[in-house]
Design goal:
alpha/beta; Urease, subunit C, domain 1; TIM Barrel; 8-stranded mixed sheet; 4-stranded parallel sheet; 18 helices; 22% strand; globular
């Protein structure tokens, strides 16, 4: 029953599975769904060989395929194309699943969130950033590892139901690493690092290195990185040492940067409420640098760095981001809810900055759905055409698939449906007689019917 509920199975589905097992048939789940035919899902969580057929297949790196199919063998995509051609390549003993009114897409990638904050969804939205931050500090201080683990598990489950197969997680406790491992989702877990006092550097770094060592090589689906929290929450000397650690161990880096006007006042001018709260955390840093230029002074702007937000930026910052080749995770709903302003997305893209979309955590957004993030971004593009570009639906989808995978350093493995890549994919109902699967996906799809990671079903919704 527990595994069935994790897949999103109803009790009717669980009973049907039990019936097949108890009657001595091959132990697969054979169910008839409202919008799919001939379901035959793999033994428990693992699918070794299966053909997924749908009204549409959207590979992302090539045009959409009407009446398409994907062949999965041993967790790897073995073929993508017209269903009749893919079926010719499928071994006769392989399983076949048909989705009559659906689209198969690469698994959605959420490059930045806070799963451990899932139980903070009750926080008022919208509200000013400073009041939100003060509330978050109080909540996090009272949270235990066990609390964070329960929240992270709920966040992983919600993510899988939205078709998310890979997560860039910013983790305070490391509890989300455990949750992702248990639910078999793919992810990069950035261990949060905060150090407001020079006297704490040695202890904090030892704790970080200890966690990284424990997490090493535990799961092929998970990798780890370091997350120096923000320019204003790590003393410069500690920040540099974390970056050196990342360089030595070839670890990715994630930083919240240029998010709020308060951050800008502190980092550039040593003024504002954050100066009152945080004191002299930046006393050894140069005055007058923007958050982006300060991070460059620290040596943080490198190809393996992912910056989150980047709202408070000027033209020089944008040019620097493009020159350094860093990725930027844009979280438009969170930015709106915390009233920190609009990212100059049109300028970013025009300058060549690499941008992807992310949800952020439930403490500042209403859902963990990347498709909801796209819908809000499209709304902004209509309301603020001079600041926000009018991108095509296919371009928006790429921001939560291949772009997001690239931001996490995983684009060779996931982010598109291509032969040889990992079988990370999602299936969404889009209705019948659809001529544009991109439009239908972005404006009709809600939760995923099926979510698969490396050939394993992690969500099945009836």
């Amino acid at each position: 029953g527990r595994d069935g509920m994790r897949f999103g199975l109803s009790w009717k589905g669980i009973c049907a599975t039990m019936l097949l097992w108890t009657t001595g048939q091959n132990p697969t789940i054979c169910l008839c769904f409202q919008n799919a035919q001939n379901y035959s899902l793999g033994k428990r969580r693992e699918t070794l060989m299966v053909v997924l057929k749908a009204q549409w297949v959207v590979p992302v790196t090539s045009p959409p395929i009407r009446n398409g199919a994907v062949l999965v063998v041993g967790g790897i995509i073995a073929a993508v194309g017209k269903a009749k051609e893919v079926l010719k390549q499928a071994p006769s003993q392989g399983q076949r699943i048909e989705f009559s009114e659906s689209v198969i897409v690469p698994g959605l990638v959420n490059p930045h969130t806070h799963l451990e904050n899932t139980h903070f969804a009750h926080i008022k939205k919208p509200q000013q950033f400073n009041s939100w931050l003060a509330q978050m500090v109080r909540l996090v201080r009272n949270q235990s590892f066990e609390d964070a683990l329960i929240a992270a598990k709920e966040g992983v489950d919600q993510s899988a139901r939205y078709g998310v197969t890979c997560i860039g997680e910013f983790s305070r406790f490391g509890a989300s690493f455990v949750a992702l491992r248990e639910f078999a989702l793919r992810g990069v877990v950035f261990k949060e690092f905060i150090c407001l006092d020079e006297r704490e550097i040695e202890r904090r770094l030892a704790e970080l290195e200890s966690w990284l060592k424990r997490a090493e090589f535990e799961n092929s689906l998970l990798t780890v990185g370091v997350g120096p929290h923000a320019p204003y929450s790590v003393v410069p000397n500690a920040f540099k040492q974390v970056l050196e650690l990342a360089e030595r161990q070839s670890l990715p880096v994630c930083v919240h940067a240029a998010e709020s006007p308060s951050e800008r006042k502190l980092v550039e001018h040593r003024k504002g409420i954050l100066r009152f709260w945080l004191g002299n955390v930046l006393k050894s840093a140069p005055v007058g640098l923007s958050s982006i230029r300060y991070l460059d002074w620290l040596g943080a702007l490198k190809a393996k760095t992912l910056l989150v937000h980047c709202i408070q930026v000027d033209n020089n910052d944008i040019a620097l981001l493009a020159e350094r080749g860093v990725w930027v995770a844009h979280c438009p709903r969170s930015n709106a809810n915390l009233k920190v302003g609009l990212m100059p997305l049109a300028k970013m893209i025009s300058a060549g900055v690499k941008v992807c979309l992310a949800t952020d955590g439930l403490a500042s957004v209403e859902s963990l759905s990347p498709l909801d993030e796209i819908r809000f971004a499209i709304k902004l593009s209509k309301e603020h055409p001079k600041i926000y570009p009018s991108l095509s639906p296919s371009q928006w989808l790429r921001m939560v698939t291949l772009n997001a995978a690239s931001a996490l350093g995983l684009d060779r493995e996931i982010g598109s449906l291509e032969k040889g890549k990992q079988a990370d994919l999602a299936v969404f109902n889009i209705g019948s007689s659809v001529n544009d699967p991109f439009e239908a996906l972005l404006f009709e799809a809600k939760k995923a019917n099926l979510t698969m990671v490396s050939g394993r079903i992690v969500n099945l919704s009836i």
